[in-house]
Amino acid sequence: MMAQYLDIKKDHSNALLFYRMGDFYEMFFDDAVAAAAALDIALTKRGQHEGADIPMCGVPVHAAESYLQTLTRKGFIVAICEQLEDPSEAKKRGSKSVVKRGVVRLVTPGTLTEDTLLDARRHNYLAAWSLIRDDGAVAWVDMSTGEMIVAGCVPVSLGPLLARLGPSEVLCIDAQEADLRAMVDGTVTVLGTASFDSTNAADRLCRLYGVKTLDAFGSFSRAELSALGALVDYLDLTQQGNLPLLRPPVREQISGAMQIDAATRRNLEISQRLSGGRDGSLLSVIDRTVTAGGARLLDRRIAAPSCNLTEIRSRHDAVEALTDNAHLREDLRAALRSVPDMDRALGRLSLDRGGPRDLAALRDGLAQAEVVAGVLGASQGLPDRMTEVARDLLGHETLRDLLDTALVAEPPHLARDGGFIAPGHDPDLDDARTLRDEGRSVIAGMQADYAAQTGISALKIKHNNVLGYFIETTATHATKMMAPPLSETFIHRQTTASAVRFTTVDLSDLERRVLSAGSRALEIEKRHFTLLREAAVSAGSIIGAASRALAEIDLTAGLADLASGADWCRPRMDHSRAFDVKAGRHPVVEAALRRDGGQSFVANDCALNAGDGAAICLLTGPNMAGKSTWLRQNALIALLAQAGAFVPAQAAHLGLVSQLFSRVGAADDLARGRSTFMVEMVETAAILNQADERALVILDEIGRGTATYDGLSIAWATLEHLHDANRCRALFATHYHELTALADKLPGASNATVTVKEWDGDVIFLHEVRSGAADRSYGVQVAKFAGLPDSVVHRARDVLETLERNDREGGGKRPVIDDLPLFATAPAPAPKLTPKDDPLRDKVKSIQPDQISPMDALTLLYELKGLATPD
Ligand SMILES: Nc1ncnc2c1ncn2[C@@H]1O[C@H](COP(=O)(O)OP(=O)(O)OP(=O)(O)O)[C@@H](O)[C@H]1O
User: Fold this and answer.
1) Which residues cross the membrane (predicted)?
2) 256 in a labelled binding site
3) Residue 38 to residues 21, 72, 186, 721: CA-CA distances in angstroms?
4) Residue spans of alpha helices (H) in 694-789
5) Which residue pairs, CB below 8 angstroms and at least 24 apart, start in 776-781?
6) Ligand 1 atom with the shortest distance to the CA of 735
7) Burial (Cβ within 10 Å: 0-12, 13-18, ≥19) of residue 827
8) Is 629 in the pocket of ligand 1 (CB under 6 A)?
9) Is the CB of 589 under 6 A from ligand 1?
10) Predicted confidence band of residue 494 (pLDDT cuts 50, 70, 90)
11) CATH top-level class of 118-256
């Protein structure tokens, strides 16, 4: 057995080998050590190899999925090695023969299909990057749904594209591994150059789709072919020749989508919080979809907002129609709620990994598609997009009818045990089942007869896999059964600790009949399963179209529900370079404030009207006033609008945005070995080098990660560059009030500030953005709110006053530093903390612990508690 193990393992050195032994997957040697640590399971040993113990660990087959989940999340690749024959077959070859085994599948993060291993509401992409000279391409596939897309991609756009896709696994050749590791969080898998060969790729794809030439799918560059070929090659390898149902490759122009790089996605917390997790992200707040397919489509649209005006307007038309018609929207959402995940069910069936429940998912999904089509058909004046989508909901009636009549209402998960074909579908099956079931009732009758015949009421007829059917009595009654006359009928089979087992000629006879009927019924059901599976897979494209249509309607209804419930408006979109938002809100901050039930969100305008040149708004204002919120809400409004959603505002006129950049000063990236300031500068450089006239740039306190004058100079020069060279629309928040002077110098720049009110030495945040510049940051007041000790706040006020006085008197900051009391004189003593009247403190001081009885101590404790919580 070990020889067989080692032989299989040598072909899968980069994977953990799950070696099937009966009801367990066992791992040996280094695999066992690594898996035991990763899964937190016991590491044992089994036998010896070359004089040393063989480490071993194992997981039960029935629970394997949850272990696979942990391992794939931790980046492991697992090779599933199954027994390819029944152990009885092996025995026929001799008692020492080893059961045939072979790897049937490699489980990798990018090739998962099981529901338990996947997030239903997100895509799971496997991507491949190919670079042929300067021509690059990325191909990606969601194996669980079969969608395959390819896009030409210059190296500089690779980061933003991968950030958009968030693939769980990326394929590349050796030379590109390091670059890719820096760009993706998922697994990077290196393949040999042969996998990326573009000539082979074309042949491979033609064979896969059964066509002579790929022209029907579009014309592909060599890099695109190479990336597609690598995907197919890898799927073939991981599925061991059992390819999933792949839809024909679709070619995408990445310029068709708004470019948003990884840092911007992080900063805007589009699908994940900066702190990790989906809760509190934009996606979590706007997702009102009711199906998994709808949720995945929303995720895709938000990740890649469109730059095509016709497409955007058509999405808005559809959302508008459902916003205006609440009845229709509710009817649609009610019908959609029971739509199962057809894409993934079909994906599993195509890989022969599905079960009867997946067939039922198709049946139920297709039936609901008809209901949705009916609801839409009964409504007047729908926009074109909706009527086109509605057409895809029908056309599958033959398959739906077949599944309807063939399957029981709630079939089991696995085909193995039968019980999923409905009575009446196949007379042969019905006959076999009747015999099998009657057999069971005959056995029950036989038990009653034997009990009467022997006078042993505790006599039972039972079944197990070793003996088949047998008669069981307790040891006390056994003597009677083993003595004549009963011993003539009852043949002794086995004695256990607590029971004695018998059989009879009649029982054996009946057993044969019952079992053969049972296994015949099972065989028939399995045959039906194969037929139904094949029917479903060959109707794959119709099912796919219906499923896409349902997702589109779900998404539209979800966005309409959001728009009407949260008071959002349809943005006016055009090719201008306007960015004019009236009473805009930040959807996530607004939702958080509403949830906390405190202050309500203050809506703010944003008017960036770029004619030919730049339009930059320089925002100054106190800490905590709402600068970052305002900056981000405008970026999110642009993103939502182009994704096809309405926007959180009273009105919006937006010219198309091709690239969205958002940077926040100072965020460490220690994992990638960059200091705070370095990260800030690398990211700023990327914007200044890439932003075009259609970019929208959000810069939040750029330059704050270094000394004041360096930071100010960098911010100054950055602003000038954005204005003169990039000529884009930009929002720039800063605490360098000196920068506000630039508004007079640069025609495209204007100042805005967030207002506060001073009250009794404190500040009150009004969160209102208006034109003008701030003169103070109120940082010291904010620090006080944050709970800095009073002595530190007082001291900071003194220092600030001295600095400001010197500044006013024209000394500048630098020469004044030496005159600061901070360095020149001994620090003024911090204001002494005069404890306020504090009865609790007084009481504690008065306690004499050594002179107090336990009883009094307890009373005292209550008294202290009362003083601490007077109410
Ligand atoms: N328009 C608004 N209406 C109501 N509350 C708001 C608004 N904008 C911001 N806030 C509240 O103020 C808090 C601080 O906002 P934000 O982080 O945008 O301030 P900031 O000016 O960028 O601060 P800093 O300069 O310290 O980074 C938010 O968490 C939110 O609770």
Assistant:
1) none
2) no
3) 21, 10, 17, 50
4) 708-721, 742-745, 779-785
5) 776/622, 776/737, 777/622, 777/623, 777/735, 777/737, 778/622, 778/623, 779/622, 779/623, 779/735, 781/622
6) 25
7) exposed
8) yes
9) yes
10) confident
11) alpha beta
pLDDT-based confidence at residue 597 (cuts at 50, 70, 90): confident
2-107 carries CATH number 3.20.20.150: no
Determine the distance separating the centroid of ligand 1 and the alpha carbon of 666, expressed in angstroms. Answer: 18
The reply to whether ipTM tops 0.95 is yes
412 marked as binding residue = no
Q: Identify which of 729, 776, 732, 772 has the alpha carbon closest to the alpha carbon of residue 752.
A: 772
Q: Hey, what are 22's tokens?
A: 């009966």
What is the whole-number distance in angstroms between the Cα of residue 755 and the centre of ligand 1? 12
Task: For domain 287-396+539-566, say whether CATH 1.10.1420.10 is its number.
Answer: yes
325 in a known ligand binding site: no
Give the global pTM: 0.79
Strands 250-251 and 147-152: what pairing? parallel
Domain spans in the chain, listed from the N-terminal domain onward: 2-107, 118-256, 287-396+539-566, 427-531, 572-777, 788-824, 839-868
CA of 766 to the centre of ligand 1 (A): 10
Going by alpha carbons, the residue nearest to atom 11 of ligand 1 is 626
- Given CATH 1.10.1420.10, say whether it is the number of domain 427-531: yes
148 annotated as belonging to a binding site for a ligand: no
In whole angstroms, give the CA distance from residue 785 to residue 778: 11
Ligand 1 binding pocket mutation candidate from 267, 585, 624 (most atoms within 8 A of CB): 624
Residue 701 corresponds to which tokens in the numbers above?
Answer: 């306190």
